[in-house]
Write a structure and sequence with these properties.
This protein is α/β, with parallel strands linked by helices. The protein is built from eleven helices and nine strands. It has an eight-stranded mixed barrel. Strand 6, helix 7 (197-200) and strand 7 form a beta-alpha-beta unit. Helix 3 (93-114) runs parallel beside helix 4. Mean pLDDT is 89; it is low at 1-8. One magnesium ion binds at residues 65, 124, 156, 186. Residues 30-284 form the EAL domain. This is cyclic-guanylate-specific phosphodiesterase.
């Protein structure tokens, strides 16, 4: 009995020690990422990649989505899912998103000047940006300063934003929309508990989450959900873009069920601007017959 008790205590102690060191690791990693990210943002070491948005019927380029990329000299390359949450928690997100938005809009202006046929750029904005910030003013002055047509810029936001209580966000989105900027609901279908926001918020686009696109080929209920989202979009006069299209079969099914726009590895991965230009000049157009 003594031995059993001893073993249980030992195991308990180990479990606690393991738990603590695990916590410390996570907290420590968070701090390391936060301080490296702070430097990367202030020294403008972040990159922006561009992924084409394609018209399924013609195969034509309809726009690009800007996605942040970060390679730290010591930590290596970190995916946005690792550092965007850290940026949100540490208040770095406003600077990060502003940087990406500025860079993407400048790239758009430069493409326009060079005759590269990109007519629209989408940027991702964290929901935290809409909590009592100056996001409206930042977007307004950016659009004015770079003299871009507001309709050429779309903001991708997640549904969680629509679910936040309070009318501030509602008013903010209305004001932004009144500038003429597009408003897209990213990862649509993953987070909603109510669709009523679609009639209250001035949304222009739904991005069908890739979890519904994955199994379109073999899962009838995913097909039904995708079809429902496409119909919902049509009813509300919203553009619907399918995310994460990786195969020809998925693209074909989406076309059949009335989806007109898509993004995904089947067409192209996100690329740096120069690589995107090569892609566009080369085989960028001929994956759909
Ligand atoms: P998102 O906005 O939904 O972006 C789509 C993600 O799916 C991107 O991941 C993209 O690289 C990836 N993707 C594109 N096509 C495919 C495909 O065919 N298959 C698969 N499996 N994945 C595909 P990424 O770049 O790692 O970004 C992840 C998320 O991080 C984004 O999801 C967005 O929520 C956030 N994010 C990225 N850049 C920014 C930014 O500048 N600001 C903010 N606030 N968030 C950003
Ligand atoms: Mg997005
Ligand atoms: Mg998405
Ligand atoms: Mg996402």
């Amino acid at each position: 009995a003594d031995i059993a008790l001893y073993q249980a205590k030992a195991a308990g102690r180990n479990a606690i020690r393991f738990y603590q060191s695990h916590m410390n690791d996570a907290a420590q990693q968070h701090l390391i990422i936060a301080s490296a990210l702070r430097r990367a943002v202030s020294e403008q070491q972040l990159d922006v990649y561009y992924q084409p948005k394609i018209a399924l019927d013609t195969g034509r380029l309809m726009g690009v989505e800007a996605l942040v990329r970060w390679v730290d000299p010591e930590l290596g390359s970190l995916p946005p899912d690792r550092f965007i949450p850290v940026a949100e928690e540490t208040g770095l997100i406003a600077a990060l998103d502003s940087y990406v938005m500025e860079k993407a809009c400048r790239q758009l202006v430069s493409w326009q000047a060079q005759g590269v046929p990109v007519t629209s750029v989408a940027v991702n904005l964290s929901a935290t940006e809409f909590r009592g910030g100056d996001i409206y003013q930042r977007i307004k002055s950016l659009v004015e300063r770079l003299a871009i047509k507001p309709g050429m810029l779309t903001l991708e936001i997640t549904e969680s934003l629509m679910m936040e209580p309070g009318s501030d966000i509602h008013d903010e989105l209305i004001r932004i929309r009144e500038l003429g900027v597009g408003l897209s609901i990213d990862d649509f279908g993953t987070g909603f508990s109510s669709l009523s926001y679609l009639k209250r918020f001035p949304v222009t686009e739904l991005k069908l989450d890739r979890s519904f696109v994955n199994d379109l080929g073999h899962d009838a209920s995913d097909r039904a959900l995708a079809r429902a989202v496409i119909q919902l979009g049509a009813t509300f006069g919203l553009q619907v873009v399918a995310e994460g299209v990786e195969t020809r079969n998925q693209a074909d099914i989406l076309s059949q069920i009335g989806c007109t726009l898509a993004q995904g590895y089947y067409f192209a991965h996100p690329m740096p601007a120069d690589q995107f230009e090569h892609w566009l000049a080369g085989d960028g157009q001929d994956y759909i017959e």
